[in-house]
Amino acid sequence: MSYSIACATSVWRVIGGSHFATDVLIGAAVGTATGFVIPFLHTKNSNQKKSDFVASVLPTGVNFEIWF
What we know:
The protein is of the alpha+beta class.
């Protein structure tokens, strides 16, 4: 359902002259890649031993943790 809404929105943005078709295709590629890569990295990191340095991006900013 969400892909249908995204596809319809992108078609109307191109028809309305707000975006070029290349803008829509690159945006779809970046969004899809992000949707696959971020969960993959989270599952990969959860199976490994915790490192001494962790950087996290949060809605309120960036969080750095260092253990000695």
